[in-house]
Amino acid sequence: MLKFPNDFFWGAAASAPQTEGYSLSKGKSPSTWDQWFKLSPEKFYQNQGPTDTSNTYELYGEDIQRMAEMGMNSYRTSISWSRLLPDGRSVNTEAVSFYRAYFNNLNANGVEPIINLFHFDMPWWLMEKGGWETRESVEAFTFYAKTCFELFGDIVKYWTTFNEPIVHIECGYLYGFHYPAIQNFKKAVQVGYHTLIAHTSAVEAFRKSKREGKIGIILNISPSYARSEAENDQKAKENADLLNIKSFLDPCVWGEISQDLKILLKENNLLPKTQSNDIHLISQNTVDFIGLNYYQPRRVKAPEEYNTPAKMPEDFYAPYDWPGKKMNVYRGWEIYPKALYDVAIMIKEEYKNIPWFVSENGIGVSNEDRFMDENKVIQDDYRIEFIQDHLKELHKGIKDGSNCFGYHAWTFVDCWSWLNGYRNRYGFYRVDLENNYARSLKKSGLWYKELIKNNGF
Ligand code: BGP
């Protein structure tokens, strides 16, 4: 039996915009997702928009009972910025009551709330002014963060600032999956830089608040593996890790932006605009812990030519179709559990063995009802196998000294996912879109319950 450390955080993760519902009511102003759906609903899978989420606004009480029943001792979700502060300054009291009741309910059921501030959901009023492209966004985010610490700091002890900042940067400014869906590498870097400063400024506000508790950031860490040992391919790997991993991990943990990254950006005329106090701000506001999202590795090779100045990340590293890869055929992502061991050791050896937890890991499955049996239970053995294989690697990493304190699956109840709507299901509970979002347990939910009970498998 593989046993995990005592008091290990077992749980699941989700986000406000993907679960709450009531995205245009109860005092909430539109986020960029609400507005984009209004403008271009055809971009969204089966026209499923952000109003179509799993209605935790009303159903959180019964969901928390289910979490407690499963034995979960922690749960991560986020606050919706545009629900709490519809115009950026004035507090929506209905939202305060909702979040307080929600977080109190989690605490009362022994489920530690881990609360994230930004999960891709920029308020529309701020996006209209340029969003993360502008320095004004830093000030707006800091005000929002401070407000959250004041309003909920007595009942929330684990905070995170951002979920996967690299994703809103690349999806919004390089690859077209998030609004404003433009392609401009220089802007992408500036957006990334403002996100980093907004993060550090929120950490500073948290420290100044003298609140009891810890603060961290959630990063998608897909380690890169090069096609070969050849210098050219190794350079591609280094570039990919610099841009996608070290860009946030170094300043958040070490308080310094990587010199190699600065050189790379400078050589390619991609350096962002900065302010003189930023270096100090970054150096003084490192995090207490890291949340690490892992789904699949990144396979890279050298591009045909290393073009300077680079116009896209692909000029720094090209995707490589590794012949030995095992695929999640239901979603199209590679399955490679060993990467979780590799990142556990990377954090131990290169990032001062900072406390960290797996904040997202899971398997998305399209058209999952095909696996429903005659009793209407989804027989998701592939999910059990996926989580188990990843946990084996995680366990090995912990045994070898990595300071991991928890594992959160994505996700508890199937949820809406941006342009993908409900295309890929991830939950331990199925959500029935035809029947008022009713939940039903999948086979993997029973398995997870047993795992938690045994603190291992
Ligand atoms: C992560 C995000 C989640 C969720 C997940 C699954 O990057 O943090 O919000 O969307 O990916 O993604 P998908 O539903 O596209 O398979």
From TrEMBL:
This is 6-phospho-beta-glucosidase. Belongs to the glycosyl hydrolase 1 family. GO terms for molecular function: beta-glucosidase activity. One of its GO terms (biological process) is carbohydrate catabolic process. Keywords: Glycosidase, Hydrolase. It holds the Pfam family Glyco_hydro_1. The keyword Glycoprotein does not apply. One of its GO terms (cellular component) is cytosol. It comes from Vagococcus elongatus. SUPFAM superfamilies: (Trans)glycosidases (SSF51445).
